[in-house]
Amino acid sequence: MNEDPLTLIERLLGLGEKYGITPVLLFISILSLIYVLRMVLKGDLVPRWMLDKVEEDRDEAMEILKGQETGALKEVLEFMKKIKVNYKDSSGGSD
Fold first, then answer.
1. In the chain, how many H helices and how many E strands?
2. Is the pLDDT of residue 1 over 60?
3. This model's pTM is above 0.85
4. What is the sign of the dihedral through the CA atoms of 39, 44, 46 and 49?
5. Which residues of 16-25 are buried (b: 16+ CB within 10 A; e: fewer)?
């Protein structure tokens, strides 16, 4: 299957004349998509070391966000406790 690129193009153009350009382009697009998907799954498109680095960065960012979330929740908890104390004082202390 070692064809000259010109011969391959002539064959594709012949198919384009016979069936129309849309099915031929659809077929080429599907083949390209399958090829790229295969590259992604094998790790040829994105090197493994780069993927590992991105995953580590994501994990570090998640830890930072968890810390910030905990800090924000503590502030809200303190605020709610103050409101609860103020509500008890204004209602006469009965619960």
1. 3, 0
2. no
3. no
4. positive
5. eeeeeeeebe
